[in-house]
Amino acid sequence: MNKQATPPQSFYPPSRRLMGPGPTDISPRVLAAMSRPTLGHLDPDFIDMTEDLKQMLQQAFKTENSYTIPLSSPASAAMEAAIINILEPGEKIIVCRNGVFGMRMSDIIERAGGEVVAVDDEWGKTIDLQKVEDAIKQHPDAIALAFVYAETSTGVRSDAAALAKMARTADMLSIVDCVTALGGIDLRVDEWGLDLVYSGSQKCLAAPPGLAPMTINERALKKIASRSTKVQSWFLDFNLLGGYFQGSDANKGGSKKRAYHHTAPINSLYALHESLVVLLEEGLDASFKRHQLMHLALEAGLSAMGIELTVDKEWRLPQLNSVGLPDSVDDAAVRSHLLKEHSLEIGAGLGASAGKIWRIGLMGYGARQENVFHCLTALEDALANQGFVLTAGKALPAARKVLTNK
Amino acid sequence: MNKQATPPQSFYPPSRRLMGPGPTDISPRVLAAMSRPTLGHLDPDFIDMTEDLKQMLQQAFKTENSYTIPLSSPASAAMEAAIINILEPGEKIIVCRNGVFGMRMSDIIERAGGEVVAVDDEWGKTIDLQKVEDAIKQHPDAIALAFVYAETSTGVRSDAAALAKMARTADMLSIVDCVTALGGIDLRVDEWGLDLVYSGSQKCLAAPPGLAPMTINERALKKIASRSTKVQSWFLDFNLLGGYFQGSDANKGGSKKRAYHHTAPINSLYALHESLVVLLEEGLDASFKRHQLMHLALEAGLSAMGIELTVDKEWRLPQLNSVGLPDSVDDAAVRSHLLKEHSLEIGAGLGASAGKIWRIGLMGYGARQENVFHCLTALEDALANQGFVLTAGKALPAARKVLTNK
Question: How many CB atoms lie within 10 A of CB B61?
Fold first, then answer.
């Protein structure tokens, strides 16, 4: 306790343009939804809203899974939930690791008493299917294959459909991290046979951070039902969460009675609901197309400045662009200039790529022309400020050309 | 996926008066804070805001613990975090159970491989200190004593100071559930020697649900540091959370560098911050006094209607009033009438007390005269609608008398 505490003061955040790895820019429409009057979590109107929300999540995930819920926690808790609900001590999971989040999966598995079979790829490269095939052959007793569809730490996409098919063929479950994917690139949970899938609210859905949409199919629920031990976590137990978000099947005649579990984050759910309305109004395909177009415009503008994306073209995520730093540029100075002079946030590299790349997000509401233009002009200014003035003025026309020739 | 899905529609909640066990009424001021522009979770302005928030939490908890953080999850996750961070498999915890939340603690301990020593009291009664003393004597090897200071399921207070002292004397840690307590009744974390303490945003702090303020002292951190096993949960590991919310001590010279863990729920934290500003502007003592006064006014009004509180006077929580249902009244019909005709939510009984009590919350912004009056008049109307008309018109004058004679 600070004895000389100043009187408490309200906080008024500056208005930033968020073009990092998430949270992304949130539209005024979604922010407004968040501040509507709070309801009780057992209020019939609130329950109707969550039913509606779950149906929209099913559409966004392209699934008919009835177990499709918004977890009341950040996506990293959803990652943990997906793993610990199917894993029993001593069981094996094959984990593809080509970035931060594959590493995190390993940590979670080990803490839960599981065994990790690691398939490592270079950070910034996609997952090598052959290596995974080999690991599956060597470890046919593994219960699951875990991988990240859209690696937020590197901006790399993996071949989720192929990976899930391998898992299915070997009678393993697939655990698929779609945190940065959902709403930004094609994702077909049912068609691709993805078994346990989770995402986050603050990426391409463009709602404030804090919630994790999840969907789990019957194959995964069957494995959970066959457990001989209780799930180690009370808070993340899918049986209890199912009773809360879906109600009990005991009462088949009418509306299902929900079993109290925790108090849902009502206002955050309003925001997630509204972000899904926005997404479905636009349409999934239109959203994917917009993300791709803005990505190409950004790429063209950066390229005109002599800056290149670092990920192989085939595996680039349009919503998260890994950008190579020009030689000898001061990473922190540029990002600080962008923040202070332009109120613009971009992301730094993580781990091994710190100081080597920037991560520029174009997610959800943030994937729009004014953001591309602002980012390019601000970056030009920041680089000029560092003495890199070679290509000033060329970025915007190059980006505009992409946008007008779409 | 519903093939005949209607076009997505925005959700506009009705405006309720929330007088159940939480979430409580949220002030427009706090709702407005929640919809301010989202910042990145590594933005210097956001970090300054969380520092400010942590300092206000220290004041609210009356503690100098530097480990005082807003957990990015509901309070039930905080309960789990408090337990699993200190518990190693095979260790014992003594759990006081006189309501839902003591039971939940047991479940969490068992899932984590711990042993529960249960001290059971009747639901609706306070915790019997002698029984706890006996359990401590019989199980001197227990590592902790866990109890609920303010039982939300029954409206009962326990003697937190005495219980914590017993634990300390026996060299056990205390785990103290203060979900419904914080901001509503006296709570002195340091003076009483409470070791692991957690609360929720949606009770007497009157912020939207979803966050759990926690404070942990050096004694507890020492036990955590001495673990021979990793904490079973990655998401709830206090070591990792400390690195995220407090930064690393490695960099002692300047501002501490925060280690990325998860993406904090930015906008929910704005709301929690503002709710703490509101609380500290009023002052803790003034807030406790207001809760007590509104409680007495409600009690007087109910009593004039022939309805009595069920908890022993000494152990009543002013912020959560357990009210005995008049004989033969239809519980569900009354609550439904209140909701439909008066847009007023009160809580039902849980478990054994379902159908026997109502739980009327007077928490934070909800603990004000207009709420007391509205509740009394609406309840009178609902009971009249059921044929209970004996005392109509007497409730308000009785409540007003308490308020004017304060």
Answer: 24
- Whether A244 maps to a domain, the answer reads yes
Q: For residue B358, give how far its alpha carbon lies from the nearest alpha carbon of chain A (Å).
A: 15
For chain B, how many structural domains are there in total?
2
Using a CB-CB distance cutoff of 8 angstroms, which residues of chain A are in contact with residue B332?
A: none
Indicate the residue among B232, B263, B279 that finishes a domain: B279
Helix (H, G, I), strand (E, B) or coil at B344: strand
* Interface contact flag, B16 A274, Cβ < 8 Å: no
Check if the beta carbon of residue B232 is closer than 8 Å to that of residue B84.
yes
CA–CA gap between residue A19 and residue A29 (Å, rounded)? 19
Range of the domain at A183: 28-279
Look at residue A185 and give its three-state secondary structure.
coil
Cα–Cα dist A359/A344, whole Å? 13
Give the predicted TM-score (pTM) of the model: 0.96
pLDDT for the residue numbered B392: 67
Q: Both A125 and A90 in a single domain?
A: yes
Is 60 exceeded by the pLDDT of residue A250?
no
Judgement on whether residues A362 and A392 belong to the same structural domain of the protein: yes
**What's chain B's length in residues?**
406
Task: Write out pLDDT tens, residues B204-255.
Answer: 999 999 999 999 999 999 999 999 999 999 999 999 999 888 875 433 333 4
Residue A390 C-alpha, separation from nearest chain B C-alpha, in angstroms? 30
**CA–CA dist A132, A129 (Å, integer):** 5
The strand order across the sheet containing A320-324 reads A17-19, A344-348, A357-361, A320-324
Selecting from B2, B8, B55 the residue whose C-beta is nearest the C-beta of A5 gives B55
> How far is the alpha carbon of B257 from chain A, nearest alpha carbon, in Å?
14
Residues B265 and B320 in one domain: no
Q: Which residues of A touch B44 (CB under 8 A)?
A: 339
**In this structure, are B247 and B337 located in the same domain?**
no
In Å, how far are A203, B213, B268, B316 from B202, measured between CA atoms? Answer: 26, 11, 11, 20
**Does residue A17 form part of some domain?**
no
Please give the single-letter amino acid code of residue B185. Answer: I
On whether both B58 and B163 belong to a single domain, the answer is yes
Q: Is residue B12 part of a domain?
A: no
A139 and A260 inside one domain: yes
Q: Do B72 and A75 touch (CB under 8 A)?
A: no
Chosen domain end from A244, A279, A314: A279
pLDDT of residue A252: 37
- Name the residue of chain A whose CA is nearest to B54's CA: A1
ipTM of the complex: 0.96
Segment B101-135, tens digit of pLDDT:
999 999 999 999 999 999 999 999 999 999 999 99
Average pLDDT per run of 10 along chain B, which is 406 residues long?
68 97 96 98 95 97 98 97 98 97 96 98 97 98 98 97 98 98 98 98 98 98 96 97 74 58 96 98 98 98 95 98 93 96 96 92 98 97 84 87 90
The reply to whether A158 and A136 lie within a common domain is yes
